[in-house]
Amino acid sequence: MSGGISRRELIAIGGAVAGVAAMTPLAHARMLPLDMDRDVFAAAVAELRAIVGEDWVFADEASTISYRKSEIPDLRGEHIPSGAVAPANVAQVQAILAVANRHGLPLWPVSTGHNMGYGMATPASSGQMILDLKRMNRILDFDADLGTILVEPGVTYQQIHDYIADNNLPYWLDVPTVGPIVSMIGNTLERGVGYTPYGDHFFMQCGMEVCLADGTLLKTGMGSIENGNTWQAFKWGYGPYLDGIFTQSNFGVVTKMGMWLMPRPPVYKPFVVRYANVEDIAAATDTVRPFRMNGLIPNGVLMMGALYQLAMFKRRTDIFDGAGAIPEDLIKVEAAQNGLGMWNVYFALYGTDEIIAAVEPILRAAFTASGGEVLTDAEMTGNPWFEHHKTLMRGGMSLEEIGLIRWWGPQGGAVAFAPVAPAKGDQTLAQSALATEIMNSHGFDYSPAYAVGGRELHHIIFLMFDKGDDDSSSRAEQCMAEMITRFGERGWAAYRSSVSTMDLVAQQYGAANREVNARIKQALDPNHIIAPGKQGIA
Amino acid sequence: MSGGISRRELIAIGGAVAGVAAMTPLAHARMLPLDMDRDVFAAAVAELRAIVGEDWVFADEASTISYRKSEIPDLRGEHIPSGAVAPANVAQVQAILAVANRHGLPLWPVSTGHNMGYGMATPASSGQMILDLKRMNRILDFDADLGTILVEPGVTYQQIHDYIADNNLPYWLDVPTVGPIVSMIGNTLERGVGYTPYGDHFFMQCGMEVCLADGTLLKTGMGSIENGNTWQAFKWGYGPYLDGIFTQSNFGVVTKMGMWLMPRPPVYKPFVVRYANVEDIAAATDTVRPFRMNGLIPNGVLMMGALYQLAMFKRRTDIFDGAGAIPEDLIKVEAAQNGLGMWNVYFALYGTDEIIAAVEPILRAAFTASGGEVLTDAEMTGNPWFEHHKTLMRGGMSLEEIGLIRWWGPQGGAVAFAPVAPAKGDQTLAQSALATEIMNSHGFDYSPAYAVGGRELHHIIFLMFDKGDDDSSSRAEQCMAEMITRFGERGWAAYRSSVSTMDLVAQQYGAANREVNARIKQALDPNHIIAPGKQGIA
Asked: pLDDT for B291-316, tens place per residue?
């Protein structure tokens, strides 16, 4: 450990810096674990260096900066890592966990650390050391008959995409937004989604290897059977199905994961249904739901608000430079000029020409009756938004949604809130009204999207703010707390949370849930060294 | 407790009786928990009576007989309950658990106790008291827009079927074989399957209420959110996904469960593909797999061997009364006379006439090329086997598979073994060869079925024997042990097990798996009062 500043001084600096607009990133780059003596920390770091080599432990200010970066507000310096350690293999992960247990060093595992909108690589509480698994980046198996893959945490969607292309395999990968830089394991563990019929990543996941805090290596499902060949073919295994408890969790470090891939269809046809008015979202939802339930629409449906769409490719000042939220009329005009409706509903058909010809008229009739304008490549080719979603719905690579982060300015700033509700039109109207009221009252624009997975609706609210402006950051924190709280009072709780609100959300899921999680945590990680605070679990 | 026979004497009688062919059911009807004094047991029973009333505690020989009945071999009396208690509601379940904790009384929860082929209501070890949840039989909620249902453990598939019919709801229920008498919760917790596109019951399950050993009531997923309305709409909730650990498990008592229902399709068209030869199963499997992966066949595919089919409606002596296994030639002749092939592959299409017309030619071409004969209602109407599967694949009610149990005689006798493998043709050939060898060597017929869920293959081997003949029972036990062991050595392990082989199967899933299960068990049920031994978990 370099420098002569103590942990408490670092915390003090963090606190002081938070109060002023100008701050150097260095002052915020790291912070020791609470209650850990710096000599103990130094001893732990020395042991970690012995395991992974000098180059793969980051425990000084400069080398830690990249792990500190996130786009969410953090005015009080509550999500500052103490450093990072990057193992090359499972044996090193086990050895690192042993060190962490010995010294009480909390570790925050990340796969590639691109948890956009939720805090990137930053930990739930300051002082945790990032366990960076990016070096473990091998594709371990690919069964071309079954369309299954087994990967390590550092493997990105881009890497799998390239592997499929290089080997000309007849499969598509389901990719989340900003997929190229994202880890398949990281996204799946957070229960992220994509946009093809294989969009529910956790459902398509099959088999894990988990390193527990004491170094025990658990292979879930069929993975532990000697001479077995079914690990990636069958999810459930025998006895209690365990995979689920390692998602959105701090019960272990997932070091391998299997996934199913979608057979490449002969024909792919993307659609957008354009709705003119804000209140049309109710009719759109009620039209989508039965088609998701009966499978006529095979992929998760994105219903994108105009402002969410515009923010992908434009800055706020391109549209408006007045005070307060952008007026609805202005959004409507801007949307129309760009070929967008106030709501834009994206889905696709996959199959043969004959199958698509049999399904398409049913969908067209229903969406038209609901007041939507059904459009395809014939009308929309070249429209940047249509092209973007066309890419996503066939599992293509896109980084375009990163644009959202810079809505207010070059310093960026965005945090996501995604409450879940039944996929019913009245739910969208009530949620959109509540979100608009709260966000506008804090001076922010409401830029919504809804995703209909199956019977449920994820409301994706990207709160865009200016991280270069402490007032904006402060309002963003207050706005997010109010949204979580008031949505929660109505029974709408988030399916996922940024590191800054994990505990707040966890409380909404009740005491029994927390108690059970706490007991399992105690059973599997008695020293609480893996990601304390993740999803509100100490 | 009536009668003057002590527990040890009962055990002694059980042991003695096992050695002779003639035994009265009464002598076997009940056995006290090992290491429990009869006075303690009597005290516990008195407390249970105070909770549920005199009529709902069964702790004498006569009233316990029905809980003792099963079709699996049990020569050494290892699966004999001490009695049964039937609560009327969740509060009574909690009170019963408190009594059980106080006295160390192990409880074996069953929903309706019809776990056919796996031991019915009988416990993994003798002396456990059956916690019979059949009285908790309310349908608590049905959302007609979302097609979701919330039920209690005692609710049977017949009851839900009738509810749907009575209310003319546009949904189909996915039903396992012998569905009418089976609990939806019980089947789903054992990860049972059905035959429509909603056949993977655990995947279609959404939300549980679980009563833990200490009485804590956990609602999983979205169930604990105050004012929430999303419990049956969204599976995963927030934080670790817990539902899975309560399936094939003894971590808690599931007292409520949500389930998704399939929208009733406008048109339904069932198919059977008939294959003439035993070895055709490989080509059939390799033809089915890609259609399950790309969804052109939307339901799980049953590939039924001739003898499995014949045994549903015939007795063994109808076909053969010689020694040893029935010769293949004879099976072939009998099959042909009944319109059956040596393999009969059942699947269905669901949708509109246009959609089915677009898909059917693709399937026909592939199955015909694989050597199969593709048949539908046009050729097969009235064939009892076709009609049976036609009923199953639209979620209809059937008890016809119960016929299998009486293959050898009126006393019945059958136990299931279902190893899992990748859905590849070479796996079927190797598995069928191994099973035939082992079963024939023990004097049993190999009457197989395979189910292709998705990328995996369940080999459903119903070992039919004569429970009225101790020699037959003894050979059945040995045969089953050899099959589990030798399949396991090849890497093929069962997805489920009868109560008599739970531990043997669990061993094949490795030490880490057992260790993690043991730790979670200890955390959630420290006195081990819920179903000790279930799936090998103490």
From this structure: 999 999 999 999 999 999 999 999 99
Give yes or no: residues A154 and A236 share one domain. yes
Same-domain pairing of B41 and B110: yes
Provide the pLDDT for residue A179.
84
Instruction: State the smallest CA–CA distance between residue B270 and chain A in angstroms.
Output: 18
Q: Within a 13 Å sphere around the CA of B477, how many CA atoms are in the beta-carbon half?
A: 14
- Per residue in B41-99, pLDDT (tens digit) is 999 999 999 999 999 999 999 999 999 999 999 999 999 999 999 999 999 999 999 99
Half-sphere exposure of A73 (CA within 13 A, CB side): 24
- DSSP string covering B431-494, please? HHHHHHHHHHHTT----EEEEE-SSEEEEEEEEE--TT-HHHHHHHHHHHHHHHHHHHHTT--B
Structure tokens, A156 = 């990105």
Q: Identify which of B218, B421, B523 has the shortest CB distance to residue A523.
A: B523
Q: Which of B316, B394, B475, B496 is catalytic?
A: B496
Confirm whether A171 is a catalytic residue: no
Is A118 catalytic? The answer is: yes
User: B20 vs B379, which has greater pLDDT?
Assistant: B379
**Contact flag B240-A290 (C-beta cutoff 8 Å):** no
Residue A508: other Cβ atoms inside 10 A:
24
Please report which confidence band the pLDDT of residue A200 belongs to, taking 50, 70 and 90 as the band edges: very high
| Residue of chain A nearest B248, judged by CA positions | A239
Which tens digits make up the pLDDT trace of B447-469? 999 999 999 999 999 999 999 99
Find the CATH number of the domain harbouring B385.
3.40.462.10
In a domain, B151, yes or no: yes
pLDDT value of residue B7? 38
pLDDT score of B18 more than 90: no
Count of domains forming chain A? 4
Please answer yes or no on whether B294 and A263 come within 8 Å at the CB atom.
yes
Task: Tell whether A292 and A379 lie within a shared domain.
Answer: yes
pLDDT digits (tens, 9 = 90+) for B132-175: 999 999 999 999 999 999 999 999 999 999 999 999 999 999 99
Domain around A209:
139-263
Residues B295 and B394 reside in one and the same domain: yes
- Indicate yes or no: CB of B453 within 8 angstroms of CB of A298: no
Of A76, A135, A364, A495, catalytic: A495
B490: number of Cβ within 10 Å: 18
- With CA atoms as reference, report the closest residue to B107 among B215, B217, B218, B187: B215
A254 & A282 share domain: no
- The alpha-carbon gap from A46 to the nearest alpha carbon of chain B, in Å, equals 30
Q: Count chain A–chain B contacts defined by CB atoms under 8 A.
A: 300
Does the annotation count A496 as an active-site position? yes
Asked which of B263, B292, B316 is the last residue of a domain, the reply is B263
Task: Please give the full DSSP string across B188-248, using - where no structure is assigned.
Answer: HHTT-B-SSTT-BHHHHEEEEEEE-TTS-EEE-TTTTSTT---TTT-S--SSS--GGGGSS
Q: Do B239 and A352 touch (CB under 8 A)?
A: no
Report chain B's C-alpha Rg in angstroms.
23
Closest chain B residue to the Cα of A353, Cα to Cα? B358
In a domain, A18, yes or no: yes
**Minimum distance, in Å, between the CA of residue A393 and any CA atom of chain B:** 16
pLDDT at position B323 is 83
We report the CATH number of the domain holding residue A90 as: 3.30.43.10
Residue B434 falls inside a structural domain: yes
Residue A356 within any structural domain of the chain: yes
Looking at every residue in chain A, the average pLDDT score rounds to 93
CATH of the domain at A506: 1.10.45.10
> Are residues B350 and B233 part of one domain?
no
Domain CATH number, residue A158:
3.30.465.10
- Contact (CB<8Å) A244/B248: no
Last residue of a domain, one of A263, A288, A304: A263
C-alpha distances out from residue B260 to B184, B193, B203, B235, Å: 12, 14, 9, 10
pTM of the model: 0.95
When pLDDT is cut at 50, 70 and 90, the band that residue A43 belongs to is very high
Q: Are B23 and B67 in contact (CB under 8 A)?
A: no
Task: Judge if A459 and A528 occupy the same domain.
Answer: no
Give yes or no: residues B239 and B296 share one domain: no
pLDDT in tens, B320-335: 988 889 999 999 999 9
